[in-house]
Design brief:
Nucleotidyltransferase, domain 5; 423 residues; SH3 type barrels; single chain; 12 helices
């Protein structure tokens, strides 16, 4: 089943989302029109009474993908997965830096180097991190505009780090409750990439193992824990790791280094989550938070598969979930192109020019169009992204690339907005 359809009234105010079948009936009867394709939203042609805000918008921010879910009570009626382009931004900045450095070394025309003596404003984030916050906030504002959201829930911290570092810090009751061990195990699974630290085996039952044996004075601190398969755990027993891996110095060095290394992705995501939390508070809606360990506990208790949008639905304290959709909207940030005046080959020499005007016959590259061709060799219906040409003969990327479609047959159904969509 697809996501529930978002609904706007005649004044463009959000109403209660409805089942896709009900939306199709309204469209067929002429009582509504399509307002937006992604996320699919209809606008009513008749006035309705004001809707009470009853929905909860939940998010699970991630390093590469952010999960989004809308809940109506305990029913999940909308899900989405937003894929960020932080790595692309980072690669572009590194490429620009290397090109500028090369020009300086060759003493050709270049931009003078700016040294790291400039003060940064409070709350500054690197561009790749700021992108994660900005795109997530853009989509949350969009969904709040299209759905009557009354509250927001966010997974604020990936791990309860003080709890992990010192298990006694929050009292005996928490430690002996249902969440006992979830924070630690989830942290270790991420840190050791869900593999045995000693032999590297995957997709087997893994056990929490003390690097420095507890029998010889080892502690429960996170820096002294790793993951091991049952065979390696049995073989190591109470041996010192230096003794157990005496014939594998490379593995020994890797484990000792990894044990002291924090999670790079977790550190980056934690920094963006706090900034996102601050931005969410400014929206004026109540914001609830939960930890990553609690999210995993809820998902495991409800026997749900590991996906970003279901993780979002499991954020915070929940009694149960009822899935009214199983096909999340897949959103991928692609950006709005570049500002290059000309394209270059792999050696950096100009190869072709970029047209000065991006719009041709009212279309621009990246728009999603519907073309109904009624004459010529390419009779048929085509829906996909368009690549415009100055001649007015366009290419449409649907299941396959169709070339040479005249602009007179094309009709825009979704304007280019910097994202690709899938289901």
């Amino acid at each position: 089943m697809s996501n529930f359809t978002l609904v706007l009234d005649t004044n463009k105010k959000p109403s209660e989302p409805i089942h896709p079948a009900s939306a199709r009936l309204l469209l067929k009867q002429g009582k509504a029109a399509v307002f937006r394709l992604y996320p699919f939203t209809i606008i009513l042609k008749e006035e309705v009474k004001e809707t009470t805000k009853t929905l909860t918008l939940k998010i699970d921010p991630g390093s590469k993908t952010t999960g989004i879910a809308i809940l109506q009570g305990h029913k999940v009626i909308f899900g989405a997965e937003l894929t960020h382009r932080g790595q692309t931004i980072k690669a572009s900045l590194e490429s620009r830096r290397s090109l500028r450095r090369g020009r300086r070394n060759r003493h050709t025309r270049y931009r003078q180097a700016r040294f790291l003596n400039r003060t940064r404003p409070e709350g500054w984030l690197a561009p790749s991190l700021q992108h994660r916050v900005s795109t997530t906030l853009t989509w949350l504002k969009k969904l709040i505009r299209f759905a009557p959201v009354s509250a927001i829930s966010q997974e604020l911290v990936r791990f309860d780090l003080p709890q992990i570092e010192n298990p006694e810090i929050s009292g005996v009751e928490y430690q002996q409750g249902e969440l006992f061990g979830y924070e630690v195990r989830e942290y270790l699974l991420n840190k050791w990439e869900r593999k045995c630290a000693y032999c590297g085996v995957e997709n087997v039952s893994l056990q929490v193992e003390h690097i420095h044996p507890k029998a010889k004075g080892g502690t429960n601190r996170i820096s002294n824990l790793c993951l091991a398969c049952e065979k390696c755990n049995q073989q190591k027993g109470t041996q010192l790791i230096e003794q157990f891996l005496a014939k594998k110095p490379d593995v020994l060095n890797r484990i000792l280094t990894q044990a002291k290394k924090p999670l790079k992705d977790a550190a980056a995501v934690n920094s963006t989550r706090w900034e996102l939390f601050k931005q969410l508070k400014a929206l004026g809606l109540p914001v609830n938070t939960g930890s990553g360990g609690l999210t995993k506990f809820n998902r495991t208790r409800l026997n749900l598969p590991k996906t970003h949008w279901l993780d979002a639905a499991c954020v915070g304290k929940i009694d149960g979930l009822k899935l009214k959709t199983n096909k999340p909207l897949l959103i991928k940030a692609t950006g709005h192109g570049s500002r290059q005046m000309c394209r270059t080959d792999k050696f950096g020499f100009p190869s072709r020019y970029v047209p000065q005007f991006k719009f041709v016959k009212g279309f621009q590259t990246g728009d999603i169009v519907k073309a109904i061709v009624t004459a010529g060799k390419k009779i048929g219906n085509y829906v996909g992204r368009v690549a415009v040409r100055s001649s007015g003969s366009f290419n449409i990327s649907a299941d396959t690339l169709v070339q040479g479609i005249s602009s007179k047959y094309c009709q825009t159904i979704h304007k280019k907005d910097g994202y690709n969509y899938g289901q």
